[in-house]
Amino acid sequence: MENSKTSLSELIRLERPNWQHQSQNASSAANAVTTLKQVHEIVNGPARLLSLDLEFYCDGQSQMPGTTRLGQIAGRVYGQDDAFNYYVFSSKMTPKDQLSLLKRLDLRYSEAERLTVASVLKKVLRFIDRVQPDYLVSWDNRLDLSVLNQEANRLDLSVLNQEANRLQLAETSRSWTRIQPLDLEKIISSDVFEKSSGISLARMCDLLQLQHPKPHLADHDVLMIDKILQFYALDLNKILH
Question: Is this structure's pTM higher than 0.85?
Answer without folding.
Answer: no
